[in-house]
Amino acid sequence: MSTVEPTSPVVQESSQTSVAPSHGHAVSTAGRLSTFLSTYVFSKDHKVIGLQFLFSTLLWFLVGGLLALAVRWQVAWPWSDVPVLGKLFAQQGGQMAPEFYTMLFTMHATVMIFLVIIPILAGAFGNFLIPLMIGADDMAFPTLNMLSYWFMWPAFFAFGASFFVEGGAASSGWTSYPTLATNVNSSPGSGWGQTLWLVGLTFVGVSSMLGSVNYMTTIILMRAPGMTMFRLPMTIWAMFITAVLQAFALPVLTAAGFMQLADRTIGTGFFSPEGNIVNNAMAGAGGGQPLLWQHLFWFYSHPAVYIMILPAMGMVSDILTTFARKPLFGYRPMVYSVAGIAGLGFIVWGHHMFMSGMNPALGVTFMVSTMMIALPSAVKTFNWLGTIWGGRIQLTTSMLFALSFVSMFIIGGLSGIFMAATPVDIFIHDTYFIVAHFHYVLFAGTAMGVWAAIYFWFPKMFGRTMNEFWGKVHFFLTFVFLNGTFFTMHILGAVGFPRRLADAYHYETFHHLQPLNAFMTYCAIGMVATQIIFAVNFFWSMFYGPVAGRNPWNANTLEWTAPSPPGHGNFDYQPVVYRGPYEYSVPGIEGDHLMQTDPPNRAAAAAAAAAH
Amino acid sequence: MKRFAAVFWSLLFLSVPVLGVATFIVGPAYDIWLPRDVSEHGAAVDGLFYFILALTGVVFIATEMVLFWFIWKYDESKSNGPGRYVHGSHTLEVVWTIIPAAVLLFLAIYQMNTWADVKMRRPNMTPTVEVVGRQFEWRLRYPGRDGMLGTPDDLHLVNDLHLPIDEDILIQLKSMDVLHSFFLPNVRIKQDAVPGMKIPVWFKAREEGVFDIVCAELCGWGHYKMKGRVTFEPREAFDRWLEQKYAEQEATQPSVSDVALASGALPQTNQFANNEP
Amino acid sequence: MNAFAAQAGTKTPSGDLICRETRGQLVPSLFPVWMLGVVAVVLLLVTTTGCGKTAAASYRLNMVESAKQRLKPEQEQQVATILAALFGTPDDPSAPSECGLDAAKLQLAAGPVRSDIVGRKNGLYREHCAHCHGVSGDGMGPTAAFLNPYPRDYRPGVFKFKSTERADKPTHADLVMVLRNGLAGSSMPSFALLSDAKIDALSEYVKYLSIRGEVELALMRAFFELDDEDQGRLPEDREFLIEEIVLPVAEAWQAAEDALIDVPEMEADIDMAASIAKGKELFYGNKANCVKCHGVTGLGDGQVNDYDDWNKVVLQAHKTVQGGLEQADEASTWDMDADEAVEHRAELAWLDRFQKVLDGNALPPRTIRPRNLRQGIYRGGMRPLDLYYRIHAGINGAPMPAAKGTVPPEDIWHIVNYIRSLPYDFNGTLGVDKPMVARDRL
Prior knowledge:
By secondary structure, chain A is mainly α. Chain A contains 18 helices and two strands. The relative contact order of chain A is 0.11. Chain C has four domains: 2-45, no CATH class; 63-256, no CATH class; 272-306 and 368-440, Cytochrome Bc1 Complex, Chain D, domain 2; 309-361. Mean pLDDT of chain C is 84; it is low at 1-19 and 428-442.
């Protein structure tokens, strides 16, 4: 058993996130204001920035969830009076207009992908955890870090404002394919809404690129003494490789975004064929190809989906080991798998385009690479199972979410194999089978991983633990409802039920599927309602939860040696690392784990003492 | 109490494979499953689907059961000793890398032929019909008696596609404005219609029937109502239908039924004859 | 582990629901009570505010006409009341028997879409038509602003594509044909996949909305004819309403059935090349004068600044408001006496109201382009018969004039044949066996 004993306290241990300037000085109001701004608003402390990301993304999670409920309402009961939103269509008796539906699912996906999942993984957890877990006092570029958060705000404004412009928000799908997205006459949301969407996308991209540079530099250069690359916790490996993915993939999307913006505003024709007439209005210049956008978009967006899962995988690895009291099974294979997923992730983008009209021979090559990318994910799953095998499992809320990540990721990963098989994709492309697959990996996978991480690192962030009972209620209800909502989508997709249809029941093939969709909508409503419990738990516990010490979970990585929450500079003194992460249930020692900072003679001495 | 909680949670994880398998059994019982297939290549596509289902089904059940079993068995309230201090097993890593890799590679190669049949081996023939997607309808153009598209004897129709059975069909797929996707669920055919491109689609239907044409790529607010009907019928009936439609297209006098309908009399039989009132 | 927890002052990870430790003492935890309270409040808010049902759909008054006729609010109210009494509501339509409308068909088409009942049997209009054509049939549904051309406004009772003379109403068959085939090249889709009974019901409902719209216009215009003793209220007795207002409208619809254009036979063994040559002569000639609008190349670029009747009304209204505002600007209130000043202010108020109506209750006017005859896409249908109708009667509501009277009926067939050859006209040489190059370029 080890306890971190501060030998020379450098910073105050406080129960709030950062240290206020020294008391007792007569500070002017302006000075106080600017200090407040620089401490809490434009802070360069990675922990404050991480929390800023966390709060912003959780708020947008709510927005995205409500948009999803509106989508589900229309799918279950098409053309019926929509609650709340029906007021916008009072003339029609509350019945939604079809272009409104296209806007709903477009913005649901956009918000969830660009304003929730990517920022919460990289921005919130990446920022908060990276310096703490590698033993640094802050990021390599604190100002850049602050900018990466504040570059999100123009994106918030752009996406938020797009709902209120003429024509409404973007409505060409989050994939924004030309010529629907490029021709302003093709759809109501293809006017100002789409332009603002592209602006928002650019800012999100810049924010991510700034962040990724910071993370890569910090992890490579600022590790504590003794923290070799192969002693890094999986969270850090995942964050590192995610940052590499972002750095290499994002520029392509940003460039494509500028090209589309140019097509829409200054009359270029990158993506419009010659003489293209939509809704009786001519496009601008021609000579372009709609497929070009698809290639550029998916070249980023496929690595993006790995950006959206790798950090969660890393965090889940850390949480599973902590609560199974066992080292990670196959640390190096796990690291190589993460790298393999990322590397292969750059050569599979064409699997989104099997039906797009691209040369079918490319379909063969992309199919092979897509099949192979299932392999490292499978290896990781087996290693997680190996991690909990023979453990001493503590079923805390965090552990339950982490275990459900594994369970749900198995489903999401296996369903991907159907799509990789190109002949099967002929049938299931653009059906609910695809929707089921990505909701399993993104929601049942990553979001569960995010909740696991929130429950796990909450004590480090706020100095208090969240309530376990209500956490488990939250877990149980979320788990049940999400499976009710999304598992049935697999068989819905097997019927061929298409995506993005405001009303599918007037087709003979899909006529009988309304009751199932109604059931799924009830589950979705339950799922969103359950998050109220989480929100209350989160905010209550921040102020009134039981005080946590430095290491409430008895985990062994570096962040748990710092105070909860850590002050500026993070650690009481420069940590020195002597061993790898996950040293749990080490035989021959007192207590059941060794911290990374525990010097070797202590373990040896304990072992020697035990031997005699 | 703690043991009860552990049992409860492990049973929750057990419900995943149980209910998962149940869904795939109950669904087909309620006709929520692959729709009827009337094409020649459809059997290969469906066969592949079932093969992958079986494979992933086995892996799904096995891994989820293992997960359940480990939670049940290794929960802290049950075991007294510490966790096993094991960092991995080289043998296991090799085994569970090689075997999935081999399976996946086999799967990849196994399906290449079907893909080539459907998408790469185009039959050498003139198009049976040209299908042009437009917001929000399927505009059809048959070549007419001279067998050439783009001549005055072409037959122009909307949404009502007729095709002969037991013959190779070649469709020339185009789009007038934005991306659409020509999806025939009952023929296991899907192909995006790209503005600026002419894309061939081919298949052979084995059975008669009337089926849906669905647009499967977001094309605007009317994407949901871009519904067509494909009717597969014997060659003679198809030819007769073409003749009848061509005569209608060349009409220089109002038809008898149109004159009768002018006053709101009962309409003639709808050729789509669905069972709605 | 417990020793460590005690040292750090925390609880074991499982936490405690009932009590918590504060400064070394066990106190009851208020958390569960707090939690339930918040959840209850949230649910209460949600159910009382958000989940309330939206009011039933209602008809919107023809605000442009009302503003044009300078109707006062109580007059508008009277019009609405009369219309409700005569024609019911969108959920429960009715019509005076003099209109000759089938009530069962109206019921089938009307009402909200009951999406929770699979195979439901009403709500057709709301499901298929309302989001473009509007619940009131005013062509201003939510989607309408984004369509080019705008969806039809039924209220003036003017329909473009029919088999009757220009000023006549369409027959039932015409409405059914438009529903079945759609209007090629516009956003009006083909509804051929609906059953005959449904198409029938929808056609009837369109007629109903049109009759209702015309009655509304007539009522609004009738205020102008009132004497002072009527005190600005229309008489509400049945005799006045039915005889003076409804019957003229209904009879026009009933007369349409017998007003089909008499189409002469085209010779079975006609010499197509000669006919096309003759048609070309007429096309470029002075009698038909087609090139004036359709252009010398037939691309529809001869005249691009004209408007159809529906857009003309709005355009005119804009001009009226513009002119009125300019005039009002020039008038100087210094020289006005009390009465003139009151009138002036009333005029300004009316102009202001009219402007607001145009901003909120009318679509921005769009020009109408003559048809590009090289594409082979004809709104009203591509049969020779359809083209004959268009040329003979022109297109009601559009600037396309009737050739009746200027071009003999048999000669119209020559023009029809020429037009049908235009998409296949390659390099200026006539060739019915040459492929359509322009059309096939994409």
